User: Fold these one by one.
Assistant:
Number 1:
Amino acid sequence: MRPRMQPRMQPRPERDPASFPARPYDLVKEFTIALVVVALLTAGLATLFSSPDERPVTVASWSRADPADFAATAVAELAGSSKSATYGAPYNNTPGAGQKLGPVGLQNAAGVRIPVDTAGDFVLGPLRSSPEPAAVTAAIATWTGATGTQQQTWATNYTDALGKAPDGDPAKVAAGDYGPVPAIDSRLTALAQSGALDGQLLAEGGFYQSDYTRPLLFLSDGSYLAGLADAQHLSGDQWGMMNETGNYPGQAWLWLYTFWYQINPFSTSANGDALVWAVMAVLSLALVLTPFIPGLRSIPRWSRIHRLIWRDYYRDPH
Amino acid sequence: MSDTTEPAGDRTGGWTGALRRRAVRALPPDKLLPDTQPSYMSSWIYVFGVLTTVALLVVIATGTLLALEGPGWWHVSAAGTYVNSLHLWSVELFMFFMVIHLWGKFFMAAWRGRRALTWIIGSVAFLASVGTAFTGYLVQQNFDSQWISTQAKDGLNSVGIGAYFNVLDFGQMLMWHIVILPLVLGLLTVWHLLMVRRRGIVPPIDALTETPATTTPQATAEQEQS
């Protein structure tokens, strides 16, 4: 026979706040004081610490500061072997590219909505739309008339030669079978250093523009931008994206998102980004639905922190 | 009070009158702007709700000042740089106050007593705030924008969002930052505040009317869910 249960206080729906003793409380006064305090605090912090504003990298400043990196990146864009050229959706169709969550490939499912052809958009297009020396016209004709295999042979040979040249300097590359690649690369570097390429990458034949997708992809394909970021402690393995240049707090609220990138399997998986997003989606949903998740919604009762918050009430409930 | 018990004169005014009556029923003036609060509302943690609200107002005000002169102004003007600094630090304060507010409400189990919707709106507002701040970093037009956007694109692209929400497109991100997300965040904030006023401040945990009864597992589950 089961023991008879002892009478206890039966849990009931929460009491109406109006059923508790009340005390005067001036919400408008509190709001006004808070507004003044926060405005003054903001002004004080802005006066003391200002805000970071590191000048952006341009294609011109990149190609002048590190012409070897620019030249090598330009060859990769021309040959279709750069990060952007082989990225997959949403920029291009690349077999095997695109992250997956198990069998689900959301990246590819979204399709190629922002088409990017690195050879045409970053190299050949800008060269064609500029005053073109006859040697460059001939080089482009030779390149476009060659087979894909021949193009890859030239590009690979030249990339290898650049790697072996002192400081990666195109002027010090040993003689070899590079086809028209050096002429194209050299002219693009000259255009970049003059500043013309910045405008061409952005304008794309139009006048008004606000989409920096192509110049930013080109910049991020080189190692110069990443080197500057690394020096500012902004790399991915340095909790990169949540920080900003200088000693500023940055987006500290992204700590959990950035945290996953520091540990396995997220830091090593080919699908690391998708995995991090899946985890954050689940955690965000859990935050929103906390009131309905058994266990999670009981933590406040177990933690006893509420005894501290309402210590006056618990000291004298009546 | 049901409409059937209302005097005929109270049902006038068409849709407008019906809306007014419904609004007043849900939030009568003394509930919308009360001059008293329950005596248990006695802790510094309560301050962080109003601090979050006023910090958001400072964020909107300083952002509006930046919008008046356009996105390039603050790079070339001392006054612009200062206004940008105001905007940055008000955002830092806003996020700090909001996170403390959120943790406080979590440990108060503030969703009890038909307040789950208030919690949901608040937590969605938190996520919207993270998105709004993020797009702010993307439209600074400096090295931080370049680096953050080129890093962030991979995460967004990996789950297909980047195809529609292109962080490398300055124009698109600027519109999200100064129009779409502030509108969403503003509406969520107003809704959240109205829900707080409607339901009142959540009572302390276990502050129940005490009547002898037999505890059942079902009753315990109901209490946890409420």
Note: The longest strand of chain A covers residues 7-9.
Number 2:
Amino acid sequence: MSEVKEYVPSVIKADEMDPKFKYEISKMPGAEKIMLCFQCGTCTADCPISRFSDLYQPRRIAHMIQLGLKDKLLSNDALWLCSTCFTCIDHCPQGVEIASLVRVLRNLVAKEKKVIPLVYKELATTLMKTGYVYVIPESRRKKRAAQGLPPLPKPNLEHVAKIFDVTGFSKVLEDIKTFDKVKSE
Amino acid sequence: MTKPKFLLFLGCVIPYRLPSYEVSARKVLGKLGVELVEMPDFNCCGFPMDPIDHELALTLAARNLSLAEQEGLNILTLCNGCFGTLNKANKTLREDKELREKINGNLKEIGMEFKGTIEVKHLVHVLAEDVGFEKIKDSVKKPLTGIRVAQHTGCHLVRPAKYVTHGDDPENPTMLKDLIKLTGAECLDYMDETECCGNPIIGVNEEVPFQLAKEKLEHVKAVKAQALITVCPFCHMMYDLNQPRIERTFEEKFGIPVLHYPQLLGLAMGFTPEELLLNELRVKPTEFLNQISKVL
């Protein structure tokens, strides 16, 4: 665990707060119950990531949504630290899907800030090209027969491309910026 | 009784990195009379796309579900991530009419439709529910009496509880433990069994997943387990493939072999370590296999 640091309060200015933000968020699948969060902190207390990262605090993320701190949230690296173990969803006494809130915010970063971690761009690009998120080498495919395994299912790349188009993500992907790693402290 | 028959959804990680899981799973399922049908065609379950575009992930998942519906077969996954994603998509699209219409609008472009007529199951569910404990017990020819292992069920097999409807307790999952006990091995309790492996974020941050995995390996070592048993390729990679790096990072020796559950069951059924590709594990299970040969 890291040492306890001196608490420096950050002042929130009224014009940073977008009062409509929480309503926008609550329309997204999985984020419907954001208004029910009463800040008990169970999500942070039970979060395995929070145990090792002072930066990632799900309770704080829920609070920031309620306060409408959109810009601060969408530029917050901590969003990418959720490992989707879903403990917070199971433990929330108000039924707020905390991990889904994080996913909604990540999606917004991709859509509005047009930036995502490099790894996701790589996975998406490979998926579009091959149907799988990893490039499965020819040697591995050949080895399957020797191991008594049937050939891998052939992806329907036409369908995959169409899905990327119809969801608008192939367009998003065209000029998306990336960043490499995120610090946990 | 009719033979259980499933559409096998392999996912991406297993063919890319872990043929040992696929080979051992096919061997034990074959022995237990489960028929596997290969996917007619395939795309990633959608899980890796969820962080960047939920609608994209859902549509990818729904396409796979629709393929299974056309085959008239329930899906069997070996990966917790694939199970969690396909199962949740199946449940939400059945219940949320508005969302279903939106996703079906996307699928219409490729001439497909989600109807919600099939179920998604993980290997663990198929073994516990469709094959049944009695049949598995009968298949054990060489009980692993005296062998002590620990299990890691992983997250997406049991959480979020509101989407997973297979009767295991997310706070204290016992399905995998019960399956392990059928092999004759002892399944040990240890601290923080339900803790996440951390692997889903390893592409953006290595420090936190490494600390989580190190802690898990410490807890498993503390109860003197001879091996750790997993049912997910992500969890397996975290504890097996990354174990030497975790040992170097924290200057701590673990040497804990990490087996896919069907490898453990396969040994108890009488398959050889070679047949189950135990040689492909990063942490060599030499000492573990010595212990097993002593009890057999």
Note: Residues 98-113 of chain A form the longest helix (16 residues).
Number 3:
Amino acid sequence: MNPHEDRIPHVQRVYARWLDWGTHIGLAILIGTFVAYVMDLAAPHVSFDQLTRIWSLPVDQYRAAAAAPAGWGWVSLAARGDFMNYVGIAFLALVTIVCYLRALPIFLASGDRVYSLIAAVEIAVLAIAAAGILGGAH
Amino acid sequence: MSRLGLILLALVWAAPAAAADATAVPWWIWPAALFAVSFVLGIVGVLAGVGGGVLFVPIVGGFFPFHLDFVRAAGLLLALSGALSAAPGLLRSGLASMRLAMPLALIGSVTSIAGAMLGLALPTNVVQTALGATILAIVLLMWRAQKSAYPDVPAPDPLGAALRLHGVFHDPAADRDVEWCVHRTPLGLATFAGIGLLAGLFGLGAGWANVPALNLLMGVPLKLSVGTSGFVLSVVDTSAAWVYLNRGAVLPVLVAPSIVGVMLGAKIGGRLLRVVHASTVRKIVIGLLLVAGARALLKGLGIWN
């Protein structure tokens, strides 16, 4: 327990707690799915032999060669060894959005309109990026 | 430690020949090599205070067989994982200020998305050349950068005051409370816009730029700058990471061993901090970045393929 913790804003402490849990869960999923992938416990969508031949291609050519999906299309392949790893990676990339969603009502309750707006806009920006609206998913 | 530098330099010198025909070696050699290299980068990154991302992209991009699109995505995810892991402790200890970070992270996350889209749209040789030039500029910045433990801020600027970017943090090393406030907030926001663009474009993480911007430009105490930079990174890199993820530029065989290697290396690096001379490590990192930056530049220009 940090003796100076009482001067740290409540919202910051709550954000830290959620971030801590989210990061640990995300990393555990990533490591677990990667072990399953390299141990061949789940067949990959792209075999290792094919992978070594195409991983030097630009991403769009790679996707065409591997018949790999863009955007959230990986969800339909999440049972395959390689795309299973996307679960942990996506989880890690979602943690910040979840933490901001948790912080927003705290800012609103404290009457801090400017930071409520900053948090709301940040959530919108991250959600747009996650949805693949801005050119990510071709 | 200097032997470690020599071994690393020898490895990066020999790697392009092996990378040129990646299919000639068993596939598992590459994730194993990535784990080993990332582990070492994690150690030296912590010891030199630069994080692993800025070393990872030019070294792996220059000396491993993966396309730069995948390496940039992995660099971002690696920096993101490190920032996410460090941020809770920094926020709880008060060594990061969420209030200070949020406006900077917002503008940085918008521009990092633009940077990631730009990086995926530009020809590879252009991105590679620009990456090389940027890495060499970072070497210059590291060589010449000064730091100020407690910068003098005569008066907060109106925007910083309106956002209430001020506070008190406890410096555990000095065992004293330090009052802080910021100045030049509009210039700071513009700088973080540029840093976000570079982070998204090259997948470098951005601790190397965040800390000087907070400390030297905005007048934030050094320790608070380092901690707040980690929090900003966790938000900015998330935005850009989604662009790469949605484009399908994430190779698990590249990402997972790199993240685990860097995080384990960073833990060892943290323990070595007490016994290793920071100036020696700094010279090794500058040497590695010089070689990797030159390699990226020459590869981009088609001189050293």
Note: The radius of gyration of chain A is 19 Å.
Number 4:
Amino acid sequence: MLHYFANPTRFQRLSLRVEPWLLALMVICFAAGLYFSLFASPVDYQQGHTVRIMYIHVPAAWMALFCYTAMAVSAAVALIWKHALADVAAKATAPIGAAFTFIALVTGSLWGKPMWGTWWVWDARLTSVLVLFFLYLGYMALRDAFDEPGRGARASAILVLVGFVNVPIIKFSVDWWNTLHQPSSVLRMQGPTIHPDMLTPLFLMAAAFQLYYFWLLLVRIRRELMANRLRILRHRQASE
Amino acid sequence: MNTVIVLFRREARLAMRQSADSVMVIAFFVIAVVLFPFGVGPEPNMLARIGPGVIWVAALLAAMLSMERMFLGDYEDGALELLVLSPAPLELIVCIKVLVHWLTTGVPLILAAPVLFIMMNVPEEIWPVLLLTLLLGTPVLSLIGSVGAALILGARRGGVLLSLLVLPLVIPVLIFAAGAGDAVLYGAGAKANLMLLGGILLGSLALTPWATAQALREAVA
């Protein structure tokens, strides 16, 4: 079943059919999410309107971790089963994940200045997310460092798996260490501590980011497949 | 056991013939640390405050310098393919290469450290703890560095790329090692830091040879 979608032509057809729906759903989720975040949700009793940065910062951070996990799974599938599209998916995800990590760091910094009084602090959560950002950059650098694309794909797949140890560290960093960053408020054993009025826009924005990721992933995979095809044609032309 | 001895003697002999590499690493270590008093001013209390961290960062960077050469020589002359194909477990071969790398890079760093403690005015009561962190931490640098060194075989600009890949992964080592000195000075004791460093060492010892062996197999495939 896994290899059913490994056929690039079949993948292309399926992707072209699915993409418009993803795009439409994403627009709806963004519209609803932004409406709820900016207008229809309450102000925080301590932070006032500044709390609304949370509706971008938290989904971006969730997506940063999700993208790295997706890359690790794709890399494992590529290495173990030599699935044709798995490492294309990993390559396509990397810049998206890096961008989400960057957005999480910058929006967090903008939120931290009015709330904590500082743009940055070297606590466990911020440090480990910065390390995640460097891991994304390292992956993209290693991928492009080889003349032969297959070698770059396999080497960077191993790198992603080695770096995956950082993801649980990020998730549990606020529980294991005394951090300035607030502890887990949503994904906890005892259930979320955030009021449902704030959870609704949070989950809507998270869904919008997630749909954006999937839509962009499909577009990028198609682009990679076309680039591969162009490269083969160019080689063939050069050798005639 | 015979295999281990044969492999160890090969690596040791190769390392002895290029002893200039070790000297260069130590020289870089010393020069990098010595630059700091020139840069931040020679005020002794401040140097003592930043000393352990600066020495540890310089040790990291010095280790990065020599890391690339771990497999590159064998990769370029084809010996790596023979090693990958040999009946000896590739993970064992990797372990021996890492051991020799640590003996020729990590151990000289540890031996050169006391001189730098004097230059950076590090208080004498934390010297033993810092030397212990170097003893526990430099093998981790060699182990995690071996994964990076295997991944960049055949890459363009491999040396710089190696630093970009390995340094984020060894940040925890740096945090706990440099923090151990402070922990002793504040009276909290460095036991937690040393335990965590030991844990990271044992974890790397168990997992990185396998990752490096996989990377080597990809490199010669």
Note: Chain A is about 75% helix and 0% strand.
